[in-house]
Amino acid sequence: MEAYETYQTPLSSRYASKEMAHLFSPAHRFKTWRELWLNLAIAEKQLGLPIPDEALEQMKSNLDLTPEQFDIAAKEEKKRRHDVMAHVHTFGQVAPAAAGIIHLGATSCYVTDNADLIFIRTGLTFLLKSLAVVISRLSAFAAQYRALPTLGFTHYQPAQLTTVGKRATLWIQELLWDLRNIKRARNDIGFRGVKGTTGTQASFLTLFDGDHDKVEELDKLVTELSGFDYAYPVTSQTYSRKIDIDVLAPLASLGATAHKIATDLRLLANLKEVEEPFESTQIGSSAMAYKRNPMRSERVCSLSRHLMVLHQNALMTSSVQWFERTLDDSANRRITLPEAFLTADIVLSTLQNVCEGLVVYPKVIARRIAQELPFMATENIIMCIVKKGGDRQEAHEKIRVLSHEAAHQVKNLGLENDLIARVRNDPYFSPIHEELEQLLEPQTFIGRAPEQVDKFLKEWVQPALDDEELKVAVAVGGKVELSV
């Protein structure tokens, strides 16, 4: 397999953001390898190895690969059957003064694993910024509809009222946890560093004539030159594949959150209460012209399931790494890691597009409330009768009978809920007839939902988004336009 094909990013990169797609592109990967070789040479020269300045200058001047160099690398790999050595030789052709010292003392995982850690850390930063924008957009939606009553559902059966905004805070809270988890994973990423073929640093100890202090200093210098605060204290030939587990776990969890949000929106679309954006010329079905399929939310669900499953690959790969390493991790990780980040990126951009264009239909929501609220108001009716001097048990039996009669109208005859009309026509309830309208006011059934929204946005969301790197991302984040 040719070198550039070995690291081809998945088809999903076509739909990812430019920065995420570039991060996992062959061009960026191999440039990063060259930067790592340069850092190693700089540190080795600083610690006394006889590396000429010309070698470093030629390496610095040729970090980007040309199309011709990709062709050379492809031919080299076909001949050598080794991707890293193919690129060592390719780099040496454009930096001839450095040809003899490129990769000096290193093993292949010096570039492959350290590069992966760089990509992972950068990718997590990209996702944090995208996630912050989604949270911001959804928070604006929650604030706008903080007090709009809507029918709550438990077991997907009508339950007590909530508000459209309060329901959105349930989604936002899970996204905040995802923000926390991804940030923890990002901040915990270390560097493999300079560890040698089995992690013992034996080759570097030989290079520095048995000077342990210089070997430790080399590891520290390369780690700092590569932009990391620390290197993992011990490694095998690779960094522990458990790191991949720790990275993909919060991405899988994000997938679960996104799937939950998108599923709720798909259900609401069926109820015609809330819909995702639908373009004026968009076609929902090739046969049924009236349809407004929630295809964006369906896309989120589809990709989120893929994102959740990828975590299993990391678990299995980590569990079967024999002793200091085995190569059956390689092909798997070259697919799994880019796929996870590219998929998470697409999920977030699609979710942002959905949140920026949500359409709420208050009259449909009010109609559904009117259909169910009479049943929910029965307890209030009973309490009101008791306050007027009535008997609680007698009132309960009266309202029970009327409720079943109204339910028969709805379920068996397909008519509207006429429970309140039946209460009005029953002389037993005459003491509270004038109070029935007030007892059926939806705002009296939403509890502290509006206040909960306000407090949640102020005390939890705003502090999370006040993080400097996220604040900038939210400020400059533009609207996402998607091809349907």
From TrEMBL:
GO terms for cellular component: cytosol. It catalyses: N(6)-(1,2-dicarboxyethyl)-AMP = fumarate + AMP; (2S)-2-[5-amino-1-(5-phospho-beta-D-ribosyl)imidazole-4-carboxamido]succinate = 5-amino-1-(5-phospho-beta-D-ribosyl)imidazole-4-carboxamide + fumarate. GO terms for biological process: 'de novo' AMP biosynthetic process; 'de novo' IMP biosynthetic process. It holds the Pfam family Lyase_1. InterPro entries: AdenyloSucc_lyase_C, Fumarate_lyase_CS, Fumarate_lyase_fam, Fumarate_lyase_N, L-Aspartase-like, Pur_lyase. Pathway: Purine metabolism; IMP biosynthesis via de novo pathway; 5-amino-1-(5-phospho-D-ribosyl)imidazole-4-carboxamide from 5-amino-1-(5-phospho-D-ribosyl)imidazole-4-carboxylate: step 2/2; Purine metabolism; AMP biosynthesis via de novo pathway; AMP from IMP: step 2/2. Belongs to the lyase 1 family. Adenylosuccinate lyase subfamily. Homotetramer. Residues from neighboring subunits contribute catalytic and substrate-binding residues to each active site. This is Adenylosuccinate lyase. It comes from Suillus luteus UH-Slu-Lm8-n1.
